[in-house]
């Protein structure tokens, strides 16, 4: 049985915290926790908001669901969709300040090892910003995130139609820039990223400067 006088909440699992929230506490309530409800919440762990920092009052599972336990009450928290299309949640830090966090980063901090350290981003493998299942997330560099988006056509909504020219002669028109990049890749054998960077002027390639893409 868990005592209500436990001072160090940081050592308690979510199941322990739920038991402490029973008011009044009875032995029957602990028995209840060993059944169906315990199974439902057993995969929740204390949320990490950074590489090492955790918040004692919040628990998260591998799907990105978050439960808050404060003032002897607990509830499943409802996220909102940010202007950038990600699920966000407002959590209070240990000083009581309310901060907004992207849930995909909370899942990654909590369940995924970050081999690259600071300055990294979390990539959604399937391109769905609302799919925060840990199996769909990976740590990557900013450039790696961008390359993944282009290679999977995830930047199509910001790419515009245009016409391709080679040495000043018209070749064809394309609805999306990724289509013209793929065309040049097939013609030249260069990778998608090399062609894209050369075509946009980010990293010019002398062997590709014969191609010009004019937005329509």
Automatic annotation (TrEMBL):
InterPro entries: His-Me_finger_sf, HNH_nuc. Residues 118-145 form the HNH nuclease domain. Pfam families: HNH_3. This is HNH nuclease domain-containing protein. It comes from Veillonella seminalis ACS-216-V-Col6b. The lineage of its organism: Bacteria, Bacillati, Bacillota, Negativicutes, Veillonellales.
